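testing teh design pipeline on a random one, pls ignore if ur not involved
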């Protein structure tokens, strides 16, 4: 019995240690299944060390503008859509207006420009009001128009391109992502209505990571959802706020704007936090950020777009904070806790049954009475009573 109690105590201690490890976020040095024994490299944390306002409506951008979406050209210029004035604008890295196109492109009118994507010398713009996709060259000349009317879209928003030049349009009102060829032909539809993995409720924007996976700002579900190159939703994490946009840098860090709290949060591809811009200890954001854009350069910079202004945040890497990998660590800790608790329950049940069995049997009549002595003298509580002496005497005579 004493040995069983010691074992139960040891298992309880181990279970408590496993629970502490699980809630502390400590990563166990265990091999990664499916990826060999190599550890996933930790992403650096990030913080803003400077903020500058590149332009404001009426001061850099034409008066009456309403900035909607933006993308960064390979040369570093910003392409910005103006949903109120129905134009597309190009700014340099300092916020100087270089060109403006629309709303008329010959006989074709741009009704309500929304998402924009850049591939080489081509600029693609969603016209939410038609619905169509415009393709412009680097000088703003119209090269083609792809009608999406047959697809029954409702409230198009963000636009992105993969490495093959395919277009991904966020069809917000239909809770799906449209995958289109470079010529505007439908390849497939991604997602469905809902809050489960693979579902959307008003997807607003998407952005590609360096590994070809893409991340969707699922607005009504208050989360970011990740999809792999096989068009399978792999994971999602809750934000606690509505996100209109999302961007990914060359290292794979995911930037998400929070317009309500004027901040930009940064995560790993699994949703572990890496930093926050607009926090009390960082430069103040002077815009309510709706979209973000990351230049394809090694210089750590993020452009933040609000309805009436664009800011550039200069970033600095910080030491990698604790990060979840594939989820194996937490799963392993959970499994250890479950096994230990099951063992505790089993031992407790067996110990209880053993005690009940002993209580039901009592002391056998022919069991010898053991008289303990210390230093040659019995303790008073251990001395035999008269009836016990009689039993001993009768047993002795019987044996003789």
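output:
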């Amino acid at each position: 019995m004493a040995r069983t109690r010691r074992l139960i105590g040891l298992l309880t201690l181990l279970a408590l240690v496993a629970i502490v490890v699980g809630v502390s976020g400590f990563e166990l040095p265990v091999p990664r299944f499916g990826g060999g024994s190599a550890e996933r490299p930790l992403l650096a944390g990030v913080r803003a060390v400077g903020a500058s306002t590149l332009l404001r409506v009426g001061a850099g951008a034409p008066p009456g503008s309403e900035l909607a979406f933006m993308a960064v050209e390979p040369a570093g210029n910003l392409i910005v859509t103006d949903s109120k004035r129905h134009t597309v604008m190009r700014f340099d890295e300092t916020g100087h207006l270089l060109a403006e196109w629309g709303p008329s492109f010959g006989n074709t009118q741009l009704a309500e420009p929304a998402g924009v994507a850049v591939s080489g010398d081509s600029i693609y713009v969603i016209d939410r009001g038609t619905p169509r996709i415009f393709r412009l060259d680097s000088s703003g000349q119209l090269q083609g128009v792809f009608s999406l009317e047959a697809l029954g879209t409702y409230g198009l928003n963000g636009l992105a391109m993969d490495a093959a030049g395919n277009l991904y349009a966020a069809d917000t009102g239909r809770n799906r992502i449209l995958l289109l060829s470079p010529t505007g032909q439908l390849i497939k539809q991604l997602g469905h209505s809902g809050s489960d993995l693979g579902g959307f409720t008003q997807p607003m924007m998407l952005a590609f990571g360096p590994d070809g996976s893409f991340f969707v700002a699922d607005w009504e579900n208050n989360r970011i959802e990740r999809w792999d190159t096989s068009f399978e939703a792999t994971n999602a994490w809750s934000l606690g706020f509505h996100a209109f946009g999302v961007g990914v840098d060359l290292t794979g860090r995911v930037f998400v704007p929070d317009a309500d709290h004027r901040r930009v949060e940064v995560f790993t591809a699994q949703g572990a936090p890496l930093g926050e811009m607009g926090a009390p200890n960082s430069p103040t954001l002077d815009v309510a950020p709706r979209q973000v854009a990351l230049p394809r350069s090694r210089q750590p910079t993020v452009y933040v777009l609000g309805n009436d202004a664009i800011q550039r945040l200069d970033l600095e890497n910080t030491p990698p904070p604790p990060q979840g990998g594939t989820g194996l660590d937490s799963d392993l800790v959970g499994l250890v806790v479950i096994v230990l608790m099951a063992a505790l329950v089993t031992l407790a049940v067996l110990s209880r049954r053993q005690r009940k069995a002993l209580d039901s049997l009592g002391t056998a009549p022919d069991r010898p009475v053991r008289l303990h002595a210390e230093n040659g003298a019995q303790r008073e509580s251990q001395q035999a009573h008269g009836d016990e002496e009689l039993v001993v005497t009768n047993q002795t005579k019987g044996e003789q």
